[in-house]
Design goal:
The protein is built from 10 helices and 11 strands. With about 280 residues, the protein is an alpha/beta fold. The protein has 2 domains: about 30-115, Rossmann fold; about 140-260, Rossmann fold, CATH 3.40.50.720. Strand 5, helix 7 (about 170-180) and strand 6 (about 180-185) form a beta-alpha-beta unit. The mean pLDDT is about 100. The structure holds guanine (GUN).
Length: about 280
């Protein structure tokens, strides 16, 4: 069994980004990322702090906008419009989830698609599905980078993705389809999940349910990617019963230290890419 070590790969990518940031700075351009956090969800606060710290480490200027949970959709969209017009800001990220009274779709669509470093805007999503991507969403992008780093063949492979959300499952299905994998995108209403995962060459779980993927659900030699993050007895765990599944897997991501650090590295990557897309 080989660990898909996202911690090490993300460090390598961050070093490369540091170099590119330096080059931009020598040309008088400081890469800028605006991060918006609405409310005080502790997990979101933690993620936003990690993202801001990662920006600092590579020399990206990050502007934090923390807003109370009671802010109206209109007020939030006004802040986004201001950031769209600010030439110092190359990327805009609105941390999800948003409070219930705010429509996520309206907020995402308000972001200038050229600054959409999360790759959540319908324009980016559409381009990805058509096979002409602009920004790849950070988590699936990080997973694809792990596959690339470890020379994991995707062409012709049977892939089961568990979890059909907009952040990971759906965009990852498109990215793997573009790489000529045969993808099954499974979710809460999927029948006989176990039958499907058992046949898969690659199983990716992005649900947030500890021990959802057990040893008897996967085949010998499979590749396992765990995107879940849950807290159990003050420990961070994924969706996969790592201890037992790792006995059967050829490659497996740990949690923590697998997909998580890759997500942040790819956000930094997208922010630098946004400079070119913005044409500044
Ligand atoms: N919430 C959970 N993951 C993400 C992410 O990748 N981006 C944003 N904006 N919100 C998230």
């Amino acid at each position: 069994m080989i660990l898909l070590d996202g911690k090490t790969l993300s460090k390598k990518i961050r070093e490369q980004i540091k170099g590119r940031v330096e080059e931009f700075k020598n040309r008088g351009i400081i890469p800028g990322l605006a991060v918006i956090l609405v409310g005080d969800n502790p997990a979101s606060q933690l993620y936003v702090n990690m993202k801001t710290k990662a920006c600092e480490d590579v020399g990206i200027y990050s502007i934090n906008h923390r807003m109370p949970a009671e802010i109206s959709e209109k007020e939030l969209i006004n802040v986004i419009k201001m950031l769209n017009d600010n030439p110092m800001v190359h990327g805009i990220l609105v941390q999800l989830p948003l409070p219930k009274h705010i429509k996520e779709e309206n907020v995402i669509e308000a972001i200038d698609y050229k600054k959409d470093v999360d790759g959540f805007h319908p324009y980016s999503v559409g381009r990805l599905v058509r096979g002409n991507p602009l920004f790849y969403p950070c988590t699936p992008y990080g997973i694809m980078k792990l596959f690339e780093e470890y020379d994991i063949e995707l062409r012709g492979k049977d892939v089961v993705i568990v979890g059909a959300g907009n952040i990971t499952g759906k965009p990852l299905a498109s990215m793997l389809t573009n790489a000529f994998s045969t993808v099954q995108l499974c979710h809460i209403h999927t029948k006989e999940l176990e039958k499907k995962t058992k046949k898969a060459d690659i199983v990716i779980s992005a649900v947030g349910k500890p021990k959802l993927i057990t040893k008897d659900m996967v085949k010998e030699g499979c590749v396992i990617v765990d995107v879940g993050i849950s807290r159990v007895d003050n420990r961070v765990v994924g969706d996969v019963d790592f201890e037992n599944v790792s006995e059967k897997a050829s490659y497996i991501t740990p949690v923590p230290g697998g997909v998580g650090p890759m997500t942040i590295a790819m956000l930094l990557y997208n922010t630098v890419k946004a400079i070119e897309i913005n044409g500044t």
